[in-house]
Protein 1
Amino acid sequence: MILGFILVAGGHIGIFFVGTNIELMIVFWIIASLGQGIACSMPFAMLSDTVDFGEWKTGIRASGFLTAIGSAFCIKAGSGIGGFIPAVVMNLFGYVPNAVQSSTALFGIQFVFTWLPAIIFLCGIIPMLFYRKYEQNENNILLDLAKRNS
């Protein structure tokens, strides 16, 4: 997942620097899209780890609840926040809908499309560093659960 975050951020930053070079823009867009594919699909695979960890800690296997919260609620909340933040940032740069944009507003559009996703995805690395702590203990957790459930 960290690799996916880095690819997304690198792809978006690359797009910022290519100017009008369409070929390089496409290359960086492909890099960002591959990273986003990794980063956006991994939480669904990691959800089962959360269920196992919860059962290991509490004895309760809350797979339905965690799937509802982890998948449905978080996707809807993330979609709302993901639309709100760029709108606020573009407003700060003076974006006016359906009008000729100032150079500041044009930079704001460029910032929202390139730097903002890069910053957000790079920030996503921070919680993943804590997830590595679980990964190092995953085999022990699965063995304990197997003993407990047999």
Protein 2
Amino acid sequence: MSELRLVIFDVDGTLVDSQRDILAAMAEAFASEGLAMPPRERVLSGVGLSLPETFLRLAGEQGPDSRTRMIAVYCTAYADLRQKHGPESSPFYPGARAALEGLAAEPYTLLAVATGKSRRGLDRLIEAHGLEGVFHSRQTADDHPSKPHPAMVHAALDETGVAPQRAVMIGDTRFDVEMARAAGVASIGVAWGYQPAAGLGADRIIHDWAGLRPALDDLTETTR
């Protein structure tokens, strides 16, 4: 049996496509302050950051009280949409569930999450998709500085006891890649997410889930 390895996943834009509800909730947040929402591409380019960091980027000209109100409106709107749409609020990308199930079945592979979502949001997504017990570590923006700070990856390594050279971060944004690099772990960028793959700077880029295992085996020097 190979030495344990850790595969850390981003969520939005990597495992699930939640952009419909993200954009709708963001529109409500900006409208609540009488503001026009920034362009779609600009909003999606910040997915993965914590909400305070996101609203600082998108509405930095507003005062902190205004941004706090916008965050509250966003959270309420997103929760309402999630309740309305159920699992389809954040549907899996094609092949994502099978990829998770395949990796979870490997005795030498542990899975983790590092996400800009809140703890409550992540827990509800995991419950909605029936993923209880799949992830050995769940790291959220509630407990750590925003990406690309490496705290989430460090915590996942500590919780699982896996060495950095046996860990890989998988995500769709440069925040994921920069977080991985700061933590001393390898990175895999996905080409279907919210930021162009060419600009991620990841150690590997995959264009479908079939490319995941070969990339993981290479980066963690795993033999089968």
Protein 3
Amino acid sequence: MSEAKRPGPPEGLVTDVLGEPWLAETIDLRADFEGDVVATLISRPSAATTSRAVLHVHGFSDYFFHTEYADWWAERGHDAYGLDLRKYGRSIRSHQSATYVADLDEYFEELDAAWERITRRDGHDQVVLSAHSTGGLVCSLWAHARRPPELAGLILNSPWFDLQGKAWMRSPAATALLDQVGRRQPMRMFPREVSGHYARSLHREHEGEWEFDLRWKPIESFPVRFGWLRAIRRGHARLQAGLDVPAPVLVLASDRSTTPASMTDDVFSSDIVLDVGQIRRWATAVGPHVTFVAVPGAVHDVVLSRSEPRHRAYREILLWLDAYVLASR
């Protein structure tokens, strides 16, 4: 394993809400139409000094709380980082509309800043970028645009590559209408129904096993606005036109999607958020070297699945890591 001298803790780091050994730092960003904007970088070191790291980016109505996932990486010689994007989780401020951006490229500012801290400041020259759902779309676009030399691999956990639902919702006419409304009335709410089944299946005070802050990942989700959805569809179009991420890519998803009307076993053993067929279809649009794995029984956030599919996912990550990332370094 390559090694680098670990510097002392930089100024501005505080103990994170996750507790020791997690640290958090606020990254000040350019203000937008709502005022001041920040992102938050969360970190924990592995046991030994290392030049390897993993950075995980969350999905929509989400934030970083994936301590088991991070511990798995730390046990394999990677310093672990998580990034709460602007207007999510630790980065939400009272004057902001949670989750809202008008262009996915706005996120490039905090991804650039986090990457600079992880590589130049903290001395890591082999970094795996891991991202879930909407974060998977954002990070694919960023990795294509930036192509950082330290990018050792890209893991996409149920990435959002297309608009789920009936075919007419993806038609040129529907896309044109969404583009028009999103441009003229960006803060208008997009009508939708949220059952709350997914968040309930995860949270330990409901039917799940995970502890997370329901202010930052609410059962009912956050509102979707037309301007934000316009940005997502424009991001989908860019991805579907073909990207060229130079690093090896691993795409993980469940083996099936369902739409349960109640808290049946499907909620706990399938993706009830996205269409896994769409994920499979567009996976190879990310770059020239993509591995796709369907994990039987996995939920939308694969690493928050029940024990058996979750550990199957870890085995798949390790196989991919050994074969395509570590072996090439």
Protein 4
Amino acid sequence: MSFPTDRPAVWFVTGTSRGLGLELVRQVLARGDRVAATTRSSERLLAALGDGIDPSRLLPLTVDLRDEAAVGRAVQETTERWGGLDVVVNNAGYGFLAAVEETGDREVRDMLDVQVVGVWNVLRAALPVLREQRGGHIVNVSSILGLTAVPGWALYCAGKFALEGLSEALAAEAADFGVGVTVVEPGYFRTDFLTEDSLALPAETTAHYPAIRAMVRDHLKLQGGQLGDPVKGAAAIVGRVLAGEGPLRLLLGSDAHSYASAKVEALRANVEAAAGTAPATDFPAA
């Protein structure tokens, strides 16, 4: 992808009223670019951004990402207002901490609707625009827990693992049209992701998972002490988009790198251990 240098770029960013998404909107606007910012509450977004925002460069959109038609209208409104679309950032999401056994049907569907179906809705609306203009950049904000899994985070990991698979396939499909794809894998960032207002918990728990109850308490205490700086994280995302190329995955944070390294080593050991047994299920050579 070639990032436009002769005009302000047009960004479409989801999940913008707090955290990494909010900081990304701030930095995009500070660059002089234009941003359509989707959120469940435009009022909260505008309050968080404060005064001094040029309204001609910001399009706040209250959108339910689970609603395909609403997402389509939001992308159409963006392109009609500014004449095109350059960068799509799928950032919306939330955490959920519970044992698999404690995770209810509604909780599963709600999480996957946001983290998988919502992303798919945005992509279906945006890709025809990017394909026809033969250029653009898609950024899917995953998590290091989209690459490795830990107890208590099964539902969140399920959504992010799905996003990783979607992104890998998408990168190969979109390359022929000059559209770049980046998967962002943050570690723990000092946002409100781990606050009681943001971290979803199960409707019912059992006494059989005391370690997960302790993990919940520890995560709530971690709030305010996370390693990741959201200002630096947003700047890294902007930098990757401006560069226009790089590895598919963008790891953010030393903790993310440590988790990823451990997963690679465990996977390598697993693959090597199966080297002698895997061919046993093949048909005999002719």
